[in-house]
Specification:
heterodimer, A: alpha/beta, six-stranded mixed beta sheet, two-stranded antiparallel ribbon, 15 helices, 8 strands, 51% helix, globular, B: mainly alpha, 20 helices, 0% strand
């Protein structure tokens, strides 16, 4: 009997020590990471947002889904990195006294963007949604934005659930390492978080990143290849997008959908990849979608900023000899001076926008728009044969990482 | 709900344990006739909690599981109550019902796809559209467990059991999703034993420590091997020699650590409730021949196939040729049990062939006595089989198998291009295009080496815990790594647990869930 009691006592001490060590270690790490919050997972209106950090913004979707619930903006931008980098949330000339937040996230497919749009509508009071789209990312494939289901929960318990989720995320090696680096002062200090700019990516981050890749000219090749490798547009994505537009319309949200002004060469990529007919069909579907919901009383407009216009046809460094471009970081990401023009075209304002930049898509005008697009493509191929050959050469190369 | 998830570890498990032992205390304090419900309460709670665990994954299939349990329990009662031809008919009806359920959910689309593929090969139009069926998780496990129960009812080997204990036996959450495959004779008496209603520190210490070992196998080893294997097995990857070897070896150890880790977790969790589960893995990669491998790999399924299929087919009772036929059939059906696809059929056939070849060799030459080559050959044969087990289709499997022998050429790292003249002089002309698919900088390769070391040289979980009867079978082990509930061990296991938690943020499913 004594032996049994002794073994039970020994086991009880074992459990006590196990529990104490494990619980205290986990509690300490969780508390440290939660307080330091190196990735700004749960910050808004906080001085921590001004903290400089490395170029690469980890888990930005965590911070943005939290911030949009705290800020509850009236205007929300949705999209992928093109919208995130290019559309300024501080456009006072367009939205003078309105709260604006750029909720677009790098690596987001249209499936991811749909989730973010629905989340914003759930946790905020969105009056206007500006949504940047493009053909290659218009698929339901999981993007690389790192969206987890728990991030998008709504309801009264949102902040409590997020706190638990953030504590859980804190129990990781990478976050603990970065917390310690931050405390030690060896965490990179290059630029501010996008949260400091209401969701728009800090231009210093982008600039530093492009520099790291070897400059705009070098970044062109992988970006063009990446554009050509996208799975979209797909019918499944169109159906899901349609359902989301319907939901937003029912909620009374004003919608401005726009096709991103990626460089004219990206249109050539679609052409040489044999995806041009898909792109035309997709634009036609979008025009019809817009018309259908307008007839139901929804304030929705669809604009196309892509194609061969005075902005997208800017010469690239390989042919201009310049180190940087005026309107582009590289082929698929436009600068925020272009973003301001997009907002001016969509909402008006004093800014002068080139007449050929931004065409509203509607079923009645679509055939002429597509015909104009084809003609512009042929004219460009004839007038810029070297650039046309460059695109074909890029597509023949093995895929490069940016 | 997964064992390696925060919701399971920090919410579900503490609540289920706490309420179970609270009800257990009440049950033990109830002696009068009027307290029968109290005495049943712990079992009812555990059964309910197990059904909740199952329903958490997809509540739509909970009625299916409940119906399967209820019908099989009633079927068992009818079989026991009947005699002669009626008894046989009840068994037949119950078996047909179970197999029909499995055929519909697991094999219907396999049949449709095969017919469509045959039609396409003949140049005809595809006659059928694939059915929209979601495979209920664990269906193979709970169906086979109950088929064994029905057969034992027919054989007169089943005692009178209460329905609530039967529900608990089939749905018991530690084993429900991916085994071990339980046998009612081993489990029902434990479920009915009131001694297990009392919380015991020793059970907690042993159970939790075994669970931590299983969790570490899954989170720290198997999940880190996955990135090495997945790209190589993708359709169209066409790996070269080195890539193929790394990918196939990675999968071989990923599967072992994933599945044996799950089994350890199941054994550990069950021990928290005072219930011992059967052993499911016993260092299978140390096996010296293929028969030994199957006695040490997924042991509870091997036992089930042997007792209810191989022996039912005649076993070795009717001469060598029939024995070989029975072995081949058993392994073929074992392959099909694992998955509805031709790759699984080939995998099963391959193992059947291995067993026949081994028996033939032993008849001709006797037992192999060398210390090295039998084990190495067995491991290689098993590894070759896993290619078919993992590949998305037969063509990819054949491509990877060929790549192991250099059919896709040899690619060396770009940095070794300076060795080209030396290699060329030796008559070898590899390409220097770099190793594709494999992340050389990640933790994968060191973890692969560690996994090999553990699988080939280290004692297994049950050997480490041998002094504390971790499972139903008796394990004897004399070595250095023996677990005892000391302070040092406690600190070591707490540290291992914390490391696992740190690796758990990317929750990954267990490979055997698909079966």
């Amino acid at each position: 009997m004594d032996a049994v009691d002794h073994s039970q006592q020994q086991a009880a001490s074992y459990m006590l020590l196990f529990g104490a060590v494990a619980a205290s270690a986990l509690a300490m790490v969780a508390a440290l990471n939660y307080l330091v919050d190196p990735y700004l997972l749960h910050q808004w209106d906080s001085p921590l947002l001004q903290r400089l950090r490395p170029t690469h913004e980890k888990l930005s979707v965590w911070g943005k889904t939290y911030a949009v619930a705290r800020y509850r903006p009236a205007v929300v931008y949705i999209g992928n990195s093109r919208t995130e980098m290019g559309l300024p949330a501080t456009a006072s000339e367009v939205f003078a006294s309105t709260s604006v937040f750029n909720s677009a996230v790098s690596g987001a497919s249209i499936g991811d963007a749909i989730k973010l749009a629905r989340h914003a509508a759930r946790v905020s009071r969105v009056e206007t949604m500006v949504w940047g789209i493009d053909a290659p990312s218009f698929s339901m494939e999981q993007g690389s934005a790192g969206i987890e289901p728990g991030l998008l929960e709504g309801g009264k318990a949102f902040f409590a659930q997020r706190a638990l989720l953030n504590i859980k995320r804190g129990l990781t090696v990478d976050m603990t390492r970065d917390t310690l680096r931050l405390l030690h002062g060896s965490y990179g200090q290059v630029c501010r978080s996008s949260l400091a700019l209401h969701g728009q990516r800090d231009q210093r981050c982008v600039s530093d990143r492009i520099h790291g890749w070897g400059g705009t000219a070098k970044a062109m090749i992988p970006r063009l290849q990446e554009f050509g490798a996208g799975a979209g547009p797909t019918p499944q994505a169109l159906a899901a997008f349609d359902a989301t537009v319907a939901q937003l319309c029912r909620g009374g949200t004003r919608l401005r959908l726009y096709i991103n002004p990626t460089h004219a060469m990206t249109m050539d990529v679609l052409y040489w990849r044999g995806r041009w007919p898909d792109m035309e069909r997709w634009q036609s579907d979008l025009a019809q979608l817009g018309e259908r919901y307008r007839q139901q009383g929804c304030d929705v407009r669809v604009h196309d900023f892509s194609g061969y216009n005075s902005i997208t046809s800017e010469a690239i460094p390989q042919f201009s000899g310049a180190r940087e471009m005026q309107y582009y970081w590289e082929a698929s990401h436009y600068r925020d001076n272009v973003g301001r023009m997009i907002l001016a075209r969509l909402f008006g304002g004093e800014m002068v926008v080139p007449a050929d930049f931004g065409v509203e898509l509607a079923p009645h005008s679509l055939p002429s728009h597509l015909q104009a697009l084809r003609s512009a493509r042929e004219r460009r191929h004839a007038s810029h044969p070297e650039e046309s050959a460059f695109v074909r050469h890029v597509l023949s190369l093995p895929r490069q990482a940016p | 709900m997964l064992f390696n998830s925060f919701s399971f570890l920090f919410f579900y498990l503490p609540v289920v344990l706490g309420v179970y032992f609270l009800l257990g205390k009440l049950a033990l304090a109830s002696t009068g006739n009027g307290f029968a419900w109290r005495r049943m309460a712990p079992a009812a709670w555990l059964a309910g909690a197990s059904l909740f665990f199952y329903g958490w994954w997809d509540a739509r299939y909970l009625p299916l599981l409940m119906a399967s349990i209820t019908i099989n329990y009633l079927g068992g009662r009818l079989i026991v109550a009947a005699a002669g031809e009626v008894r046989r008919r009840w068994l037949l009806a119950a078996l047909i019902l179970n197999l029909a359920l499995l055929a519909y959910y697991k094999y219907a689309n396999f049949f449709v796809d095969s017919v469509n593929a045959a039609a396409a090969m003949a140049g005809a139009e595809q006659p059928w559209q694939p059915l929209s069926i979601v495979l209920p998780i664990g269906i193979s496990f709970f169906t086979f467990t109950q088929i064994a129960f029905l057969i034992d009812c027919y054989r007169g080997e089943v005692r009178e059991y209460r329905f609530i204990h039967y529900v608990q036996f089939v749905s018991y959450f530690p084993h429900l999703i991916a085994g071990p495959v339980l046998h009612h004779r081993e489990m029902m008496p434990q479920f009915a034993d009131p001694a297990n209603y009392r919380a015991q520190a020793s059970n907690f210490a042993i159970g939790l420590s075994i669970f931590v070992v299983g969790l570490a196998k899954k989170v720290l080893i198997a999940d880190n091997l996955s990135p090495l294997a997945s790209p190589v097995f993708a359709a169209g990857a066409e790996p070269a020699l080195i890539e193929a070897w790394i990918g196939v070896l990675a999968y071989t150890f990923q599967l072992y650590f994933d599945f044996s880790g799950y089994s350890d977790m199941a054994i550990g969790l069950s021990r928290l409730f005072g219930v011992r589960l059967p052993l499911n893995f016993n260092s299978p990669y140390k096996a010296d021949n293929i028969a030994q491998f199957w006695r040490h790999w997924h042991m509870t399924l091997s036992r089930l196939l042997r007792d209810y299929l191989y022996i039912a087919l005649g076993g070795s009772r009717h001469g060598q040729l029939k024995r070989y036929r029975n072995l081949l059939l058993t392994m073929l059906l074992g392959g099909l049990w694992h998955g509805a696809g031709w790759t699984f059929v080939i995998w099963g056939a391959l193992h059947g062939l291995y067993l026949v070849l081994q028996l033939g060799w032993q008849r001709l030459f006797g037992e192999a006595r060398s210390r090295w080559w039998p084990g190495m050959l067995t491991f290689f044969a098993v590894m070759l089989g896993w290619i078919f087990f993992r590949a998305p289709d037969v063509a990819t499997a054949l491509d990877i198998a060929g790549a192991l022998f250099g059919a896709n050429g040899v690619n060396l790292p770009r940095g070794t291009a300076s060795l080209a003249p030396v290699l060329n002089a030796m008559g070898w002309q590899p390409a220097f295009d770099g190793i594709r698919w494999i992340q050389l900088a990640g933790p994968g390769l060191p973890v692969l080496l560690l996994a090999m070391l553990i699988a080939f040289r280290a004692p297994n979980t049950q050997e480490i815990f041998c002094h504390y009867a971790p499972c139903i079978e008796t394990i004897v082990h004399r070595g250095l790594w023996i677990w005892r509930p000391t302070r040092r061990t406690s600190l070591a296991f707490a540290t291992l647990f914390v490391l696992c938690i740190f690796g758990m943020n990317r929750v990954t499913e267990f490979l055997y869930f698909q079966f």
